[in-house]
Amino acid sequence: MRARFEALRPRVPDAGFGLIEVMISLVVASIVLSAVAAGVVMGVKATTLSRINQQAGDVLDATIEQARAASYDSLAISSSDPNLSVANDSRLVTSGCPNSGTMCIRVPNQTGSGTMLENLVTTSATGYVTNHVKAVTAKTNKVTFSVYTYITKPSDETNASYKRVTAFVTWKEYGSSHSREASTYVTSTRRGLPLPHFKLTPVTATSRTVNPGTRVYFGFKLTNLGAPDAFDFTASDESLGWSYYVDNGDGSFDPSNPAAETAMADSDGNGVRDTGLMNANVFVIVWVIRTVPSSAPTGTSTVTFKAQSVAQPSLGAGVSSLTQNTSVIVQNGVITPSPTATPTSTPTTSPCTPVGTAASSGTLYYLHNTSDGTASTGADTAAQYPMTFSSDSPGAGSLGDYSTGDGYSSVTGRVLKPVTASNSVSTADQVADFRYQVTAPGGTTYGGTASVTLWVEPASGLSSDPVNFQVYIVRRAVNGNNTTLTTMATVASSNTTWGCNGFNQISVQLPVADVKVNKNDYVDVLVEDTGTNDLRVGYDTTSMNASVILPVTG
Q1: Pick from 139, 141, 147, 313: CA 20 to 30 A from residue 377's CA?
Q2: How far, in Å, CA of 328 to CA of 235, rounded?
Q3: What average pLDDT is seen over the chain?
Q4: CATH 2.60.120.260 region(s) of the chain?
Q5: Closest listed residue to residue 147, CA positions, set 58, 46, 47
Q6: Alpha helices, DSSP H only, in 167-213?
Q7: Which residues in the chain are classed under CATH 2.60.40.10?
Q8: Higher confidence at residue 370 or residue 44?
Q9: Which residues pair with 467 in a beta bridge?
């Protein structure tokens, strides 16, 4: 029975994989797994590269933002930077730079269609960038980035104040080199609540010698260059009995009649006398006077006078407050001033009579020894090219040496060498070039009588030497790397014999036909020495407030 049953059961063939099938399956599996593994590796690599690229972008952004947060004046590369050479940095260029004898780098041009060269902004002091090449290691991935930071002066930056910050980040990964770059403009602005911005300069000697029982006085010019503000005025020793007055507008003070001026009052009720609210670019002269007691002992005493912002009084010295130190020497008997040697190069206007007259109408601008449109502090500088003119009135009380290294020892002002007159002279020792950038959206049209007022004298200081110079007013149109100069007006001033000792004020008038200067283009005032002797020019001080008056018609 069992045998019969077994006979009736269907036979099942042997089943399974043969060696060939197994081998084929392994090959197919290995291909699939290899593809998956390659995909995983490529994905990991792409993720890593993307993460590193993002980290590079973060480093780049941080570099730019840190530069933007720095003070505008500090934005420069220290000339002591150990990597600041063509040998150490292939991006640096020394040929073809806008200013010869300097280094520059290539940056995008104004239209974005190509590149152009811009000069590096360097300083002999400690600049914001002490080493423009540094290494930054990422916290994750541990990739080391090389960061290059450059501060440059845009070729069209003259009257406006701005610099360009350019940063490059380079790194290597998986055997390949990678880089990213970014560039931004940084302007001379004040962020947040405007900080106090003012100047305090003496208008009299800061040391006086007096007898007991007489009066002693000092004068100070306070100029508000920032937001509207009032300024408290105090002395370090109020017990001496100082009285404070605001000048009545004539700039002079009679110590025998101080009541001719306006007594300073406490306009804001904080218990301290002040100037009252002053708008931007307004100045006052403050006179301080006291009587030295007849019983005062002989000797020297010092007093510090301080002007302090009422709006923001707690920002510290140099920001909220400025000071001037004075000394009073009390002695008995006749006071004889100490003799002072006066070299022929020391400027003085008293023996000279002003020549010419300025234009009777137009917009008044002052000539400055700076590149950002602000008044000079009177500090010594090398010959500046170019400079600017603006509505910012001069505040320096004394004339600095504006062309150090010109071969004249201890001679103040700017010395110009003789040159054949041209509207395209660009050598710093042959032309004083003052520029103003037009910012009106539709441009500005000039037409009528312009004038330029200067203080000049022979560099030799000899009254017998002639003084001859040429003044140009030029339209400077800038289009990318191309600059077109058009003379708007020119005039020569010829003085065959100077005839006086020291600087003399000379005003020349120039007729200007209607000339339109487009937005972002410039008006240049050029002063060139056309004589046979070196010429000395004084400007940008309170006593030599050289200026240009431009007639605006539209």
Answers
A1: 313
A2: 14
A3: 84
A4: 363-550
A5: 58
A6: none
A7: 198-330
A8: 370
A9: 495
Asked if 272 and 301 touch (Cβ cutoff 8 Å), the reply is: no
Residue 200 CA to residue 391 CA, distance in Å, equals 19
Q: What separation in angstroms does the CA of 415 have from each of 346, 385, 401, 456? A: 13, 13, 9, 10
Give dist(CA 88, CA 132) in Å, integer: 11
Give the integer Cα–Cα distance in Å for 201 and 250. Answer: 17
Q: Within 10 A of 107 (CB to CB), how many other CB atoms are there? A: 17
In whole angstroms, what is the distance from residue 52 CA to residue 140 CA?
9
Write the pLDDT tens digit of every residue in 241-273: 999 999 887 778 888 888 999 999 999 899 999
Q: Comparing C-alpha atoms, which of 228, 253, 230, 229 is closest to residue 243? A: 253
Hey, what amino acid is at 60? L
Residues 43, 385: Cα–Cα separation, whole Å? 56
pLDDT over threshold 90, residue 2: no
CA dist 44 and 36 (Å) reads: 12
| 142: amino acid identity, one letter | K
CATH code for the part of the protein at 363-550: 2.60.120.260
Alpha-carbon radius of gyration of the chain: 36
CA distance 140 to 43: 18
Residue 387 tokens, joined: 């400079």
Top-tier CATH class for 198-330: mainly beta
What is the C-alpha separation between 402 and 77, in angstroms, rounded?
A: 23
Q: What are the pLDDT digits (tens) for 472-503?
A: 999 999 887 778 889 988 888 877 666 776 78
